[in-house]
Structure formats: structure tokens, C-alpha cells
Amino acid sequence: MKILIVNTIYAPFKVGGAEVSVQLLAEELVKNGHSVLVVTLHDKANKEKATINGVNVHYLPLKNIYWPFFNDGEKRKKWEKIAWHVIDNYNFKMARLFSEELDSFKPDIVHTNNICGFSVSIWKEIKKRDIKLIHTSRDYYLFHPSSTLYSRNKNINVNALSVKLWSFLKRSASHRVDTYVGISDFIKTFHINNGFFKRDSAFISITR
């Protein structure tokens, strides 16, 4: 089976546990005889390719106003941060770039994980090609730019106007997903109860 895996960051770069678990998944799928392509992002201007432990990896350039994922010591202005997230709410340029990967690899299944930088726009490209789509939620990215739902030393109310505005397009786009995986039972239930993903999807939680 041809499986395309998406994650914002991938080896040799690492931010947190998501990068580790996605790498382990990709390598295990290869060991089991599947053809696996990981599509991820990097801070370079052009696409690059690598093979890591048998996994083919394509690093795409981020089409946004700056690279935010590693702290380079540069302070960003508030308007720059807002503009970045407005673009990331539905990034048309990343959708076009990602569609080239779909047309070249022609996967049977796409498994998206952290998609910050890609945006939910890639889900439309996947389903336009009638490809099965699995998504794993590892945080609250679909709700708010603060993917922890925590800001200024307090939790962000999920019913706040800012959450509703930031999540509107993402909530609608989530209904394109065929199978939804929550990294925990709490995250799974939290998304479902707030209107994300199709009710008739096979909802799964990795841990309980």
C-alpha cells in the first residue's frame, strides 16, 4: 500500500513528541512492506528530498511570511503574527504545492498529523482525488493559533469569539476526514463535542 504521511516537522528536526511518534510510525510501515512518503516542511526556499531509515522524505518550503517553528531570536511584530495565522487558516499556496506531491506519489491513504504551516487546505486536495484521509489530533491547532488553548497564564474559553472565528473554516474542513484519531480520549471527545469531524467516522483514541 502507498501511504503518504504529513507532519509539520520531521527528522532530523524535532520539536516534541509528535515528530518522534510520526517517525516511528513511518519506519514501522516501511518494515511491514508499505511504500511510505513523508511530506514535511523546512525553512529552505526549495524542495529537498532525503531517505531516512528507509523512509522517503520530501521537505517543502513554507509559503508564508516567515518561518516560525524554531526560535531564531527574532521578535515578531503583532501584525506579523496575526498575518501569519490568517494565511495559515487556509493556505492556498501550500495546497497547490502539496497537490504536486499527491499527483506524483498517488497514495492510497494520506495520514495527516500536525498540519500547522500546511493548513486544512491540503484536506480538500486529498479528497478531490478521492484518497482516503486519516487525521490524528495531537493538540488544539484546529481551534486557535494557540494550539494549547492557553494564553496569558489562563485557559482560553472554547466558546470565546476568537476561538469561533479562528476555528470556523477548520471545523467545516474537518468533515472531509474519513477517519479521526485522537492522541488521547480527552482530545478525541473534545473535538467531537465541539463539532469537528463527521459523526459517522470511525473515531479512535490512542490512549485512554
TrEMBL record:
Protein name, UniProt field: Glycosyltransferase subfamily 4-like N-terminal domain-containing protein
Source organism of this protein record: Serratia marcescens
Residues covered by the Glycosyltransferase subfamily 4-like N-terminal domain: 15-195
Domain of life: Bacteria
SUPFAM superfamilies found in the cross-reference section: UDP-Glycosyltransferase/glycogen phosphorylase (SSF53756)
Molecular-function GO terms, alphabetical: glycosyltransferase activity
Pfam families: Glyco_transf_4
InterPro entries (alphabetical): Glyco_trans_4-like_N, Glycosyltransferase_grp1
Membrane spanning residue stretches: none
Gene3D superfamilies in the cross-refs: Glycogen Phosphorylase B
